[in-house]
Design brief:
heterotrimer, A alpha/beta (440), B mainly alpha (312), C mainly alpha (274), A: 440 residues, alpha/beta, ten-stranded mixed β-sheet, 10 strands, B: 312 residues, mainly alpha, two-stranded antiparallel sheet, 76% helix
């Protein structure tokens, strides 16, 4: 009986239609009263991508479950961030629920007080299903969602680990083993490069700002830390120089020409056309790589963790969350939607579509959910990366400036500039910006 | 000659003065509605921008009055100073190339030949198309490995270029796109000028046996000067402010090799949310464009006076 | 035909070819991109004629929800902004040209010189205060910043070249300034107005920076909507090229229509024969 009830509860949180049916007639006490806010209308602003798709595709189920109407739209990430910030600044945002990028917006949102505190809602059994507990989120997720006071200001939605994609066919052809360390990777990349044939050992985002995501993985593996105990920026030390040298070597010796201007699109084009043997980026690229309409390397892609550095092996980590605007008049209803978004059903769908990785251990570790993932090797790399996860950017307010300034310095080394000198210059330029923003 | 230069404008002025005495200055009603509209839309943003430029205002924090310190910060901001250089290079190239090519195109399209209307329509298409989408197609074409441009070059034996993917070639490559897109605008304006030219000078020039180049240089060019000036002015303002193309293709990269003032302004305001500082950049940026426009107006004024002096 | 004429002909056609081919090649390539699956779009050497034509690129764009809404929004915003601009801009260009009041032209120029980005935040706050957000009014108004200056500038240039004799004669006959403008100057200026109209439409239609901030889900214009379809995280050149072509089509059609008027206006000698 008890077992039966628990399993039904689990079902309730996610499977909307079923949940709605079985809910009728149960006592309201200690149960989530999903229908309490029926008739409410919510506005949701999403960044364009698989997370947004996943929400929009199934949101009807949420409406059936709760009777809450949801109007949502996806806008490309960059514009979404702008629009969200401008509207929140005005004090009267047009949305109740907001999709945010933790690695860029966490501190900014906290400092401005734009998000509603979800902690009381999470403690309220009439609002929160029993399986949704803070401890179910991975450490990185909690680090992102909680503020200094331990309040949950959002629910961690999808985590992005950096992994190594490699082209098995090219590796076999040249008789190269999958690298375990960064040094091996540099050597392998050189061996795999055959400029005459137009194939290269390594590709990655070289464009300023975008390049910081990959660079930071090298930086972490060389033992780098972004900030010291006092919050000073540390990206001109020996770890940063070593990371930059590796970046410089890889992208000048073993990468396609023009890589300094590569963003996702160019990197992916090179990799899907079988012209680059290795690519380090976020976990979300499996679907296009395995799509016969977009890729020439279907079935030939290997997925593994980012090779170890001399000071450790990390997967630099980024993530998205979903939160409620502090100015919203429908906070409870909005919270119900957030809860549904990170529910087991929705999380499983996201993982199985390859569009993202839920922060919740109960989803990622569920064998049933795992069974539904098509590319097992990819799933393994995700699980392994989760164990060595470390935040890939400093958690400060001026993240965008950091990425632009240090990113430009790192890119400059690709046309021959000296890593140490460039990093020093960038640090000098960035330090006052950081101080100005954190002191205010 | 110098006597002429001084006397003729004087005469022109007294002419204008006597006209004014004859008729009340009643052309103002024509202008007032437009002035009202323009001032209404720009006055508030300007007051706001100037006020914000005197404040430290980062989104999410409170504002504090800081006087001119945002402007002082500009003088020691290496990215801003670098951006001015990029902007000037970009602008000069993006004005001159379309002016030359656009004039040439206008002269060609001024001739009569079958299919002219259709081809002229085709020629104008680049400026009609949505810049952002155009820019993304160009990005694809610039791709160093997969791009069609390098393929076309390889057909004629030219080695592959890095186009917008290298700091040294990024600005010329962007100017190529800008020129491709906006030469038709110059052509349209100049074509309007060519149509307004009476045919008599050409007829007499033909009788005198002047060459095509002589006809162009000594008859056509002076007569279309006012149009070239307007085209150049519009082009200058657009090129300085050019945003869509640079942003969509390079976002100011590689590194910061194509970061113009407008791109930097965008970053500061909408990526760093440093609205006080961004406002200061907007004000200085505006003054820079005014300065460039003033230089052009001055140059035209000089030219007009010389024309009057030479008796045309 | 004399040899010189033949050389002239060849030279002319060669010039036409050189001038027109960059545009033709670009748009053909864009068309090709829009009809190919991604695997062909990223191939090297480039695939010019695909084996399989991806009509689905177009179907996807047209089927995407609210396409019609965005299209109508665009028509309203661009249409209103252009007509309002002509309404105030044509007389203004006339007045400035006749007064030779280039100083007032400079005031109008300020609107054009101001970096578009600096309008955004102040006007957003103003429209929010006025409660106009969520309607198309803010976008129509802000697009005037684009259309009014271009109309005025084109019209100044145009009226400066139209002859004064007829107008003076009409004034001597006792016509008012307004009558002169309405019945003498305006008819002559039709070709100029056509050019001004087209340019205003283009600048307004293609503008997307304003829309990003000022437009909501219901009030988005087509270019902004299409720009939102672009995702930088996917290699979707086919749909993108298809969308770009669809957005551009109305403006291209307009050009083809107005082209006759321009050509007639520019070549038939309306000005010099006037």
């Amino acid at each position: 009986m008890v077992n039966h009830k628990i399993s039904r509860r689990t079902l309730l949180t996610g499977t909307a239609a079923a949940g709605a049916l079985s809910l009728t007639g149960l006592p309201a006490r200690a149960e989530v009263n999903w229908k309490k806010y029926a008739g409410t209308k919510l506005e949701v602003i999403l960044a364009k991508g698989p997370r947004g798709d996943n929400l929009q595709k199934y949101v009807k189920e949420f409406t059936e479950l709760t009777g809450i109407q949801v109007e949502s739209e996806q806008i490309p990430e960059q514009q979404q961030r702008q629009k969200v910030v401008i509207e929140l600044t005005s004090g009267r945002p047009s949305f109740d629920v907001v999709h945010l990028s933790y690695h860029v917006q966490k501190r900014q949102f906290e400092k401005a007080g734009w998000l509603a505190d979800l902690t009381p809602f999470m403690k309220d059994p009439a609002l929160t299903a029993p399986d949704l507990v803070e401890s179910d989120f991975s450490a990185a997720g909690l680090q992102y969602a909680r503020n200094d006071k331990g309040q949950m200001l959002s629910l961690p939605w999808s985590v992005d680990y950096f992994i190594l994609y490699y082209n098995k066919e090219l590796f076999e052809k040249k008789g190269v083993a999958v690298p375990k360390t960064l040094d091996e990777m540099a050597a392998a990349a050189e061996k795999l490069t055959d400029a005459k044939e137009g194939t290269f050992g390594f590709v990655g985002r070289g464009l300023r700002n975008a390049n910081m995501a990959m660079w930071s993985n090298f930086f972490l593996n060389y033992g780098g830390e972004f900030l010291d105990a006092k919050g000073n920026i540390l990206t001109d030390g020996p770890e940063a120089i070593a990371a930059t040298k590796l970046y410089q070597t890889l992208l000048t010796k073993s990468a396609p020409p023009g890589v300094a201007g590569f963003n996702w699109m160019e990197s992916m084009a090179s990799f899907t056309q079988g012209r680059s043997a290795m690519w380090i980026d976020g976990v979300g690229w499996a679907p296009p790589l395995e799509d016969p309409a977009a890729s020439r390397v279907v079935g030939k892609v290997g997925y593994t963790v980012v090779p170890a550095g001399p000071k450790g092996q990390y997967s630099s980590t980024y993530g998205d969350g979903i939160g409620v605007a502090a100015a919203s008049k429908n906070k409870e209803a909005a919270y119900l939607l957030c809860q549904w978004v990170v529910s087991k059903t929705q999380g499983a769908r996201l993982l199985q579509a390859g569009g993202g990785v839920p922060f919740r251990n109960s989803i990622l570790g569920d064998p049933e959910v795992q069974k539904g993932v098509k590319t097992k090797e990819w799933l393994q790399s995700v699980i392994d990366s989760g164990k060595i996860s470390k935040l890939g950017l400093p958690v400060v307010i001026p993240v965008a400036e950091f990425r632009d300034i240090v990113g430009a310095a790192v890119t400059a080394t690709l046309s021959g500039a000296d890593p140490a000198a460039e990093l020093k210059k960038a640090n000098d330029q960035y330090r006052p910006i950081l101080e100005r923003s954190e002191k205010a | 000659m110098s006597a002429l230069t001084q006397s003729t404008p004087g005469a022109a002025q007294s002419d204008a003065a006597s006209e004014k005495e004859l008729r009340p200055p009643s052309y103002w009603p024509f202008v007032v509605p437009a002035l009202v509209v323009v001032i209404a839309i720009i006055i508030f943003p300007w007051v706001f921008t100037i006020w914000m430029s005197l404040n430290e205002w980062k989104v999410g924090s409170s504002t504090t009055f800081v006087g001119l310190s945002n402007y002082l910060r500009l003088t020691s901001d290496p990215r801003f100073i670098e951006a001015i250089g990029h902007t000037l290079v970009y602008t000069i190239l993006s004005v001159l190339l379309p002016l030359v090519l656009g004039t040439f195109a206008a002269v060609v399209f001024h001739q009569k030949f079958p299919g002219r209307g259709f081809l002229r329509g085709v020629f104008i298409m680049p400026m009609m198309a949505t810049p952002v989408a155009i820019a993304l197609v160009w990005t694809m074409m610039f791709h160093p490995q997969l791009g069609v441009l390098n393929y076309l070059l390889s057909l004629v034996g030219i080695p592959a270029q890095l186009w917008v993917f290298h700091p040294a070639t990024v600005i010329p490559s962007l100017v190529l796109v800008e020129t491709w897109q906006w030469t038709p605008l110059v052509m349209l304006i100049v074509l309007g000028g060519l149509a307004a030219i009476p045919s008599e000078p050409y007829e007499s020039a033909q009788i005198d046996g002047a060459s095509i180049w002589q006809v162009f240089r000594f008859i056509t060019l002076p007569l279309i000067m006012p149009f070239l000036f307007i085209a150049g002015m519009i082009r200058m303002i657009d090129a300085v402010k050019s945003f869509d193309i640079i942003f969509a293709i390079t976002q100011g990269g590689p590194g910061s090799a194509s970061e113009t003032i407008n791109i930097y302004l965008y970053s500061v305001a909408f990526s760093y949310y440093d609205l006080g500082y961004g406002s200061a950049i907007a004000v200085v940026f505006f003054l820079l464009i005014v300065l460039l426009a003033a230089v052009m107006l001055y140059a035209r004024q000089r030219m007009l006076w010389t024309e009057i002096a030479s008796g045309t | 035909m004399t040899p010189r004429q033949i050389i002239g002909k060849i030279g002319l056609w060669f010039s036409v070819f050189v001038i027109v081919s960059p545009a033709i090649l670009f748009f053909l390539w864009m068309l090709s991109l829009s009809l190919k699956f991604e695997i062909d779009n990223a191939a090297y050497p480039p695939v010019f004629f695909p084996e399989h034509i991806a009509w689905k690129n177009y179907a996807d764009v047209l089927a995407s929800n609210r396409f019609l809404t965005y299209f109508i929004n665009s028509l309203i915003v661009t249409g209103s902004a252009t007509l309002l601009a002509l309404l105030v801009g044509v007389p203004a260009g006339y007045g400035i040209a006749r007064m030779a009041a280039h100083k007032s032209a400079i005031v109008i120029l300020i609107a054009r010189i101001t970096p578009g980005l600096s309008y955004l935040i102040p006007l957003f706050l103003m429209f929010q205060w006025l409660g106009l957000l969520g309607t198309l009014v803010p976008q129509i108004i802000i697009h005037l910043v684009v259309t009014v200056p271009i109309v005025i500038w084109i019209m100044i240039g145009y009226f400066e070249t139209t002859p004064m004799e007829l107008e003076e004669a009409a004034l001597i006959d006792g016509a008012t300034r307004w009558q002169v403008f309405r019945h003498v100057a305006l008819p002559i200026a039709k070709p100029g107005i056509a050019v001004a109209f087209i340019l205003a439409v283009i600048f307004s239609w293609n503008n997307f920076v304003f829309g990003i901030v000022l437009a909501g889900r219901e009030t988005r214009t087509l270019p902004v909507a299409v720009y939102n379809m672009i995702s930088f995280d996917q290699l979707s050149w086919g749909p993108l090229a298809a969308a770009a072509l669809i957005v551009t089509l109305p403006v291209l059609l307009l050009t083809v229509f107005a082209q006759r008027q321009i050509v007639a206006g520019l070549t038939a000698g309306a000005v010099k024969g006037g």
